[in-house]
Amino acid sequence: MKRYNDMIRELRQDRDLTQKDIAEILGTNQRVYSRYELGIQPLPIEHLIKLCKYYNVSADYILCLKDEKNGKPNKGLTN
User: Fold this and answer.
1) CA-to-CA separations, 79 to 3, 41, 52, 60, in angstroms, rounded
2) What integer is the mean pLDDT of 20-33?
3) Which among 8, 11, 28, 76 would be 20 to 30 A from 47, CA to CA?
């Protein structure tokens, strides 16, 4: 099952951006951003919001709660 760190990596790579590029957008450094992608450090909510705006996707999409293509909950999620 995908996690948000996988999703932010995929979004970045799909646009041929470096970790440094995204770190600058977030106002942090590449080392910190790398830790988000590796799942070592949690992504702060303010960075999640910036990423959603930058990539023009919902937080649910980045957090793997919904499949943005059809708006339905991802399979495998339980309440």
Assistant:
1) 17, 25, 24, 15
2) 98
3) 76
Is the confidence at residue 77, as pLDDT, over 60?
no
Mean pLDDT of the chain: 89
For the record, the structure tokens of 30 come out as: 């590449």
| pLDDT higher than 70, residue 49 | yes
Report the C-alpha gap between 69 and 79 in whole angstroms.
Answer: 22
Residue with tokens 């099952």: 1
* Helix (H) or strand (E) segment spanning residue 62: helix 59-62
Rounded to an integer, what is the distance from CA 52 to the centroid of its chain?
Answer: 8
Q: Which amino acid makes up residue 58?
A: S
* Residue-range domains of the chain with CATH: 4-66 (1.10.260.40)
From start to end of 1-79, where are the E strands? 66-67, 72-73
Tell me: pLDDT of 7 over 60: yes
